[in-house]
Structure prediction request, 374 residues.
Amino acid sequence: MSKVEAILSQLKDIAANPKKAMDDYKAETGKGAVGIMPIYAPEEMIHATGYLPMGIWGAQGKAISKARTYLPAFACSIMQQVMELQCEGAYDGLSAVLFSVPCDTLKCLSQKWKGTSPVIVFTHPQNRGLEAANKFLVTEYELIKEQLEVALNVKITNVALENSIAIYNENKAVMREFVKVAAEYPQVIDAVSRHAVFKARQFMLKEKHTELVKELIAEVKAMPVQPWDGKKVVVTGILLEPNELLEIFNEFKIAIIDDDLAQESRQIRVDVVDGDEGPLYRMAKVWQQMFGCSVATDTKKSRGKMLINKTIQTGADAVIVAMMKFCDPEEWDYPVMYREFEEKGIKSLMIEVDQEVSSFEQVKTRLQSFVEML
Ligand code: SF4
Prediction:
């Protein structure tokens, strides 16, 4: 097995076994893990406690039954899965759960938590342009800090926070480089591998993830760049999984050369900037500077233009919209983006992501026809 294959295999294992990653961490450090509900949270604060931050992104192919008691059938697919897992006690090993509520479904779910872990709910202000929004979010972060300190019996110092901010900023920078390298070497980093590198960062200490990805980048860059005879796409949406779906991209030689997925590049888009203000204020500013995301209100609706620019700059053949089933914020953005794609002659295809399904024949047919049309 080559070094590249070995690193990818390690990251794929972690991405596929979050429970094992959490148990290993507990055994190694004696500390537990804190769950993070999508989409954004001041994860650096959890890192500063020494607990492992764990992303909570549902599961694939799990039949929904218990969740139906608490959520209507038209709640988004990912939260149906999260509720089902909660009812089964899947998150009860977490020491706490951090819960932002930027959409109606998350608001609803935050009031119906069925697990036993303490839940810390906070709000992102949606009138994001105002300085008052930063100040409001700082007060929310102060409350999170107090609640984490009580729940975990730790003290979060500014020194620890600054250290965690530096670790996260470095990880984001390395991941942005990884995106470029993956685009240059689609033969080496296929759609499944690319996703695994992103997903594993949800279940690892970021400094360990950074080291592995740096090593991966160095190994890949030492290889010659080969011409790509397939198609290239930019993908957008909440998430694009499972591997069975991504394998269809590989089968039809569709390289993902950039993404705007909430689970992937939106997580690495904005750094915490340096400055004299305290760490909580600088972390709060990240929300104000976030762009191109369906849950971060943008009156100028710039996501479509951002995707068009990405498509042109990367030389992509098309945009693929991975529409999370029954996700209102994504559905509201789509008509605006679609009109802009049409006006600029950018080819696009929308596919539905439903975490309950386990058969992907329909998506396969649509992707195959789309590639033939391209
Ligand atoms: S943003 Fe969309 S996918 Fe995420 S919780 Fe809200 S409705 Fe569900």
